Amino acid sequence: MKQAMHGGRLLVLTGPAGVGKGTVENALRKKHPEVWVSVSATTRDPRPGEVNGLNYWFMSEDEFIAKEAAGEFLETAVVHGMAHYGTPLKPVEEHLAEGTPTILEIDLQGARRVKETAKDLGLEVLSVFIAPPSFDELVRRLVGRGTETEAQRKRRLETAKVELAAESEFDVTIVNDNVDKAAEELWALIAKEYGISE
Fold first, then answer.
1. Would the annotation count 86 as a binding residue?
2. Residue 80 backbone zone (phi > 0: left; psi -120 to 50: alpha; other: beta)
3. Are 108 and 152 in contact (CB under 8 A)?
4. Up-side HSE of residue 77: CA atoms within 13 Å toward CB?
5. How many domains does the chain have?
6. Is 48 annotated as a binding residue?
C-alpha cells in the first residue's frame, strides 16, 4: 500500500442513532487499521468495561473546563445538561499532519460546530452522512437494539427525523444497507482523499 499525499481532510462522520456508524467504522478499521478515529473526552463516569484513552478520555469537570478555556478542543458540548464532551484538538492535528486518515464520529450538532471551528483553525473537513436504507429500517434497528425504554426510543426517533432532514448539509452520503459495502464506500472515499493506492 502506497501513501502519496499528506494532510488529507478530516473526515467527519455523522448519522442518526441506530444507523450503525460504529459498526461501519469497526468494519473499516478491521480491514484498514491505519485509519485513526478520534477519542472524545468526557466528564461522565466510565461505564463498566470502558478504558481511559480507548473509549474516552475521562476527566474531571475542572480539568475539562480548563482545557476548554485553553482552546484544547476542536468542539465541545454539554449532553443532557450534565456531562461535558469534547474532541481533543492536538491529536487530530498531529494525525492529519502525518497524513494519517483521520475520522471524527460525532452527532449532528457536533458536526456543525466542527465545520465552524475548523475554518478558523485552517482545517479542511469532508463531511460524511451515514444514512439508513429507510426510516422504517432505522426504527427496526433501534427497536432491535433493546437497550432503551419506549420513551427513550421515541425521543431518539424524533431526534433521528431532525438528523435525517440535515443530510443535504453533508458532502457525501453513504447508505448503510450492508455494513461491509458501506465500509468499502467509506474506504474508497478515504483512499481518494489521502492519495492511497493499493
1. no
2. left
3. no
4. 13
5. 1
6. no
What is the CATH classification number for the domain harbouring 148?
A: 3.40.50.300
* 20 annotated to a ligand binding site: yes
- Does 18 appear as a known binding residue? yes
The answer on whether 15 is annotated among ligand-binding residues is yes
In 3D space, the residue among 173, 175, 138, 177 whose CA is nearest the CA of residue 158 turns out to be: 138
99 is in an annotated binding site: no
- What are 6's three cell numbers? 499528506
Per the annotation, does 17 bind a ligand?
A: yes
Percent of the chain topping pLDDT 70: 94
Residue 183 has pLDDT above 90, yes or no: yes
Helix 150-165, helix 135-145: angle, nearest 10: 150
| pLDDT tens digits, 59-113 | 999 999 999 999 999 999 987 678 999 999 999 999 999 999 999 999 898 999 9
> Residues 3, 195: contact at Cβ < 8 Å?
yes
User: Residue 198 — very low, low, confident or very high, per pLDDT cuts 50/70/90?
Assistant: low
Domain that holds residue 102: 2-197
